[in-house]
Design a protein that fits this description.
mainly alpha
Length: 541
C-alpha cells in the first residue's frame, strides 16, 4: 500500500501486494483506529497480518515477554558473576569481550533480521532466534576456557539480535494503534524487572550454585517461549509473490562486517590500544572502506538489507537519529552512575544498583501513560516534551552537592526515567504506525540498530571524556592506580582528591549526555515532520 505522506515527508515506496490507501496524520485519534481489538483478517487477504483474537493473543504476548526477558536478563545477570567466571576460566585481560562480543553480534544482525522478517515472515525469524540463543546458552554453560565462552557469547548474540527486533515488530503487528502502548509498556516492564532482578539472581547463582547455571536457566524459559510461538503465533496470509524472494546475502555480509569493525574500533579504542595507534587506524580505515562498499552494493540490490527509504523518509530518519542519541545519553546513567554512587557517595554495590534502578521503575509507568498525551497532542510534540525534560534533568546532575545524599541522584534518575518513557515509546509506536506490515520489520530494526550504535559510540566517547577529566584533575598518572585506590580507599586528603576527581568526571559525562539529548531534540524539531503520516489500521489490514 502507498503511504500518503504529509507535505515534505518524502514519498513512501509501495508495499507488496497492496493498493493505494490514504494515511491519517496523528492527532486525537491516531490513525483513525477504533477503540476495540482489531478485527481478524480473512484468510488470503492482502498485505496485513491475521490479528489473533484476544483469547489467542494472550499466549503470543506471553511468548514475546519471555523472549524479551531472555535478551533483557542476559547482560545484567552475567555481569555479577564475572569474578567467579574469571576465577574458574581465567582470561581477566579479555573478559570485557563477554559483553562486547554479545553487543557486536546483536547490533550488526538487527538490520539483517528485520529485512528477513519482512521477506519471509516474523515467525521463522523469531523461532530461529530463540533456537540460536538457546544453543549459545548451552554452549556457554559448557565452555572450557575464556576464549570458548566469548565465542559462544557471540552465538548467543546472533540469536539475541533476532529476539530484540522481531519481538518489537510482532508486538506492533498484534495490536492496533490505540492498544500498542499496552504491549510496549509490558515489554518495558520486562526490561525494568530484568534491571532490578538480574544482578540479584546472577549473584545468588554464582554464590550458591555455579556460574554455569546463569546460562542454563535460559533453557526452560526459552523452551516455553518457543512452544508458545510455534503453537499460537499465526502468520499472515499473503498472496504468493510473483517471483521467489531474493535475499541480499552480499549486503547482509557487508553490513555484518562493517558493523563489526566499527563497533570493535569503538569498544576497544582507548582501552586495549590508544585511539591513534595502528590498530585503531586500521579498524577505522577498514570500516570506512566497508561502509562505502556496502552503500554501493545496497544501492544496486533488488531487495537491500538496509533500503534507502529508511533514511529518505523524514519520519523514520528523525526517529533513527533521535533514538541513536538516546543510546548515546543512556551511557551516562547505566555505566557511570554506579561508579559515582560507590566512589563518591561511598555506597555498596547493592545500594549503588538501587540508585540506578529507580529509573527503570518510573520509565515503564511513564511509557504506559504516554498514550494519554500523544493521543491529544501527537507523537512528535510528546517526544519533544520528554527529551526536553530529560535534557534539563541531566543538566541538573552536576548541580548536586558534593558528596551529597544518596536520595539526590536517585531522585534525578527517577525523574529521568519518567522523561525518557515519555520520549521513547511515542517514537517507537509512531514510526511503526507509519509503515505497513511488509516494511515494519525493517523499520523497527533500523531504529533499534541506531540505538545500539549510539550506545557503543557513547561508551567510547564518554569514557574518553571521563579519563581526560580524571587525568587533568589528578595531574596525570596511571588510571589503573586510580581505580585501585578507589576500590581500596585509605582515609586522608589523597582519597578525597580522588573522589572529587571522579565527581568532576561524572559531572562532565552528564553534561555530555545533556548535549546528546539536545541532538535528539534538534532531530525532532528540524527533521521530523510536524505530524506523523500514520496508516489507519484498516489500511494496514
Amino acid at each position: 500500500m502507498d503511504v500518503e505522506e504529509t507535505p515534505g515527508d518524502g514519498a513512501a515506496s509501495p508495499a507488496r501486494g497492496g493498493k493505494h490507501t490514504g494515511a491519517a496524520a496523528d492527532g486525537p485519534e491516531p490513525g483513525g483506529t477504533s477503540r476495540g481489538p482489531a478485527p481478524v483478517a480473512a484468510r488470503g487477504t492482502r498485505g496485513g497480518p491475521d490479528t489473533p483474537t484476544p483469547a489467542r493473543r494472550g499466549p503470543v504476548v506471553a511468548a514475546l515477554m519471555l523472549g524479551m526477558a531472555l535478551a533483557a536478563l542476559d547482560g545484567t545477570i552475567v555481569s555479577t558473576a564475572v569474578p567467579q567466571i574469571v576465577g574458574d576460566l581465567g582470561g581477566f585481560s579479555v573478559f570485557s569481550w563477554l559483553f562486547s562480543g554479545y553487543l557486536l553480534a546483536v547490533t550488526v544482525t538487527l538490520p539483517v533480521y528485520g529485512k528477513l522478517s519482512d521477506t519471509f515472515g516474523r515467525k521463522p525469524v523469531l523461532v530461529a532466534g530463540i533456537v540460536l540463543f538457546l544453543i549459545g546458552s548451552l554452549l556457554c554453560a559448557a565452555a572450557w576456557n575464556m576464549a570458548a565462552l566469548i565465542a559462544f557469547r557471540v552465538v548467543q548474540g546472533l540469536g539475541g539480535g533476532a529476539l530484540q527486533g522481531t519481538v518489537q515488530t510482532i508486538a506492533a503487528d498484534l495490536y492496533p494503534l490505540k492498544e500498542r502502548p499496552r504491549i510496549q509498556a509490558r515489554l518495558s516492564t520486562v526490561w525494568a524487572v530484568a534491571a532490578v532482578a538480574g544482578p540479584a539472581v546472577g549473584g545468588l547463582l554464582a554464590a550458591y550454585a555455579d556460574w554455569r547455571w546463569i546460562f542454563l536457566i535460559n533453557l526452560p524459559v526459552g523452551a516455553v517461549a518457543l512452544w508458545l510461538v510455534v503453537r499460537y503465533l499465526v502468520e499472515p496470509s499473503r498472496p504468493a509473490p510473483a517471483a521467489r524472494p531474493r535475499v541480499d546475502w552480499a549486503g547482509a555480509l557487508l553490513v555484518f562486517a562493517a558493523g563489526a569493525l566499527v563497533l570493535t574500533a569503538l569498544v576497544q579504542g582507548g582501552i586495549a590500544w590508544p585511539w591513534l595507534s595502528p590498530p585503531s587506524l586500521v579498524l577505522f580505515g577498514g570500516s570506512a572502506l566497508l561502509i562505502a562498499l556496502t552503500v554501493v552494493v545496497e544501492r544496486r540490490a533488488a531487495e537491500p538489507i538496509i533500503p534507502g527509504w529508511v533514511w529518505r523518509r523524514r519520519t523514520i530518519a528523525a526517529v533513527n537519529l533521535a533514538l541513536g542519541a538516546l543510546g548515546l545519553l543512556m551511557v551516562a546513567p547505566t555505566v557511570f552512575l554506579p561508579t559515582y554512587a560507590q566512589s563518591v557517595l561511598g555506597l555498596g554495590p547493592i545500594a549503588a544498583g538501587f540508585v540506578l534502578s529507580v529509573m527503570t521503575l518510573s520509565w515503564p509507568v511513564s511509557a504506559a501513560l504516554s498514550n494519554h498525551v500523544y493521543t491529544r497532542i501527537g507523537f512528535r510534540p510528546t517526544a519533544i516534551i520528554g527529551i526536553g525534560l530529560a535534557m534539563l534533568i541531566l543538566l541538573a546532575f552536576p548541580l548536586l552537592p558534593y558528596p551529597g545524599a544518596p536520595w539526590q541522584p536517585a531522585l534525578v534518575m527517577l525523574l529521568l526515567g519518567a522523561a525518557l518513557g515519555l520520549f521513547q515509546l511515542p517514537l517507537i509506536v509512531g514510526v511503526q504506525s507509519t509503515v505497513g506490515w511488509s516494511e515494519r520489520g525493517t523499520t523497527t530494526a533500523s531504529v533499534l540498530f541506531c540505538r545500539q550504535v549510539g550506545q557503543s559510540v557513547g561508551a567510547a566517547l564518554f569514557g574518553a571524556i571521563a579519563n581526560t577529566v580524571l587525568v587533568s584533575r589528578l595531574g596525570g598518572g596511571d588510571l589503573d592506580s586510580v581505580s585501585r585506590a578507589l576500590e581500596h580507599p585509605v582515609p586522608g586528603a589523597a582519597t578525597d582528591t580522588l573522589r572529587r576527581a571522579v565527581d568532576a568526571a561524572v559531572d562532565h559525562v552528564y553534561v555530555g549526555a545533556a548535549a546528546a539529548a539536545g541532538l535528539a531534540l534538534l532531530a525532532l524539531v528540524f527533521v521530523a515532520p510536524r505530524r506523523f503520516p500514520v496508516i489507519s489500521d484498516k489500511a494496514d489490514a
